[in-house]
Amino acid sequence: MTSRACKSIRPLLSAYMDGELSPDDVARLQAHLAECADCRALLASYERMREQLHQLPTAPVPPTLHHEIRAAIEREQRRPRWLRLSVSPVAFAFALGLILMLLGTLLYAQALPPSIVSSEPAANATWPFYRPVTITFTKPMDEASVASHLRISPAGERERLPISWRGTTLVIGASSEQQASLLPDTIYTIAILHGARDRWGHELQQDWTLTFRTTSAIASAPTATSTPAPTETPAATTPQPSATANTTATPPPAASTATAVPPTAVAAASSPAPANPTPAPQQGHGQSAGSAAAPSPATTAQPPRSSSAGGTGTAGNSVPTSSAGSGTTAPAPAAATPPASPTPTPLSQPTATPSVVPSPTAPAAATPATTPTPQETPAPAATSTPAASPTPTPQPTPVTGAFAQVYWGDQQVQKLLGSPTGLAYTVAASELAFQRGVMLERIDTNTFYILKDDGSWVSLPAPTEQGDPASQAQPNLWIPGGKYGLVWKQQQLLDSIGYATEATPHVMAQGARVQPFEHGILILSDRGFVYMLLESGSWAQFPVASS
């Protein structure tokens, strides 16, 4: 950057820190800061100076204040008595009311639970990577309690970024002694869990979560150019399918819906069926989730055809017509009643009349035969006794600890996962955080889980050989090494999850907790996060308290 450009930008830094710039000036300043290291350093020095000013000790009381107060009292006493009596009650009442109001406000504020009123950046915003994050509470907080309930993803950033306080504002990424930039082009999740206390012992009532993405030196101009192009193309293509849709009637929509549904329909309908037989709670579950995304549309398309062949689907409407035809053919066999006509033959008439007499007696005997029907009632009573056998079912599989915080605390999670199919257990595992995702390794099943920022995940078998050691790509960003590096390179994950944010994988000393469910699994990392992996191929991350 030329010194001329810096001279035009640097006068804006102070107004930028105070939030007084227009959006155009902010965009111009941020674009310059992304490319100019000198101006970034100057901005950092300004912010350190502001932090130091906020932490200056309170000024002592002037020694002359006592004498000034005594002199004011003496002047008041020298005033005429009638004037003092007329003014003093009014002043006293006003002062007393003001004190009572302030005291009541203070006591009321202390009794309220704390909450978070604002943050910079806002949720889902794009934030300059060289600026710290600020979170403002409604009242002074217990700093140690907030620190113990603070979660940051990527997980390694919790130890790297300095933390400080400015009154009721928590500052992440800057302190009076140190300032550390955020990682560029990285998705951050910062959570403060319920239970964080203020100075009077009142707790935060619910979890607070902030997700945002940091900027990089690359401008975001292509996003603007890409939007007009697709808008023109669908306009040209939409009339053509509409015309064909009129000619093709219902078949084409059916095919189109089958191809559009795979990601969601698999989780709702097709995936539960293979989930029960296949998944051993460890490896098979991840494999079924990956395979369910592709083959399930084919299987979902076939059942309607087989059902229609069976007469339950649309073919069922034609079944009545064919049955009506069969009904017309039924009278044809009924025409075979002439064989029954031999009954009226005259040869049997003389003997038939006496034989008819015993035949009514047989129906009379049949009436007592009908009486045994009440004897069938004890038989149902016997069948009802096996119904008592399902009594052992009221013993549901428990979901406890950190998993209970996620599962029982969110009905949507319960709906997505279904019921637990086994108890939670501990496995040997490790994890490695990336700019836009996470990789997990399960040692017990030799499986890698790759969790991407688009909400999808895949499982792969762990390689048998070790890769090259990790190497630094940028400041605080790494090309992963070992088995993680082999998977990262073979799957070409740089564009999807970026570089690793730590040099070596984090080995979970106490292992990872895993619990299987009907439609997915929960994995607890010892860094304070629970990962929900659904067999539909989607995943989610939940910050939890240590348990």
Give a verbal description of the structure:
- The structure is a single chain.
- Helix 3 crosses helix 4 (37-54) and helix 13 packs across helix 16.
- The relative contact order is 0.08.
- The two termini are 52 Å apart.
- The strands form five sheets. A five-stranded antiparallel sheet has the order 9-17-18-19-20, with helices on both faces. The protein has a five-stranded antiparallel sheet with strand order 13-12-11-10-16.
- It has 25 helices and 20 strands.
- It has 547 residues and is an alpha+beta fold.
Rounded Rg = 39 Å
Helix content: 40-55%
> Sheet bearing the most strands, described?
5 strands, antiparallel
Low-confidence stretches: 219-374
**DSSP, total strands:** 20
Top keywords for this entry?
547 residues; alpha+beta; 5-stranded antiparallel sheet; 17% strand; flat
What order do the helices and strands come in, and which of them pair?
Blueprint (H helix, E strand, L loop, with lengths): L2 H7 L3 H5 L5 H13 L1 H18 L10 H13 L3 H31 L4 E5 L5 E2 L5 E5 L5 H6 L1 E4 L3 H4 L2 E4 L2 E4 L14 E6 L15 E7 L7 H5 L1 H10 L1 H10 L2 H10 L1 H9 L1 H4 L7 H10 L2 H16 L4 H15 L1 H4 L14 H8 L1 H13 L7 H10 L13 H7 L3 H7 L7 E3 L1 E6 L2 E6 L4 E6 L4 E5 L9 E4 L2 E3 L2 H9 L3 H4 L8 E2 L4 E6 L2 E6 L3 E6 L4 E5 L4
Parallel strand pairs: 2-8
Antiparallel strand pairs: 1-3, 3-6, 4-7, 5-6, 7-8, 9-17, 10-11, 10-16, 11-12, 12-13, 14-15, 17-18, 18-19, 19-20
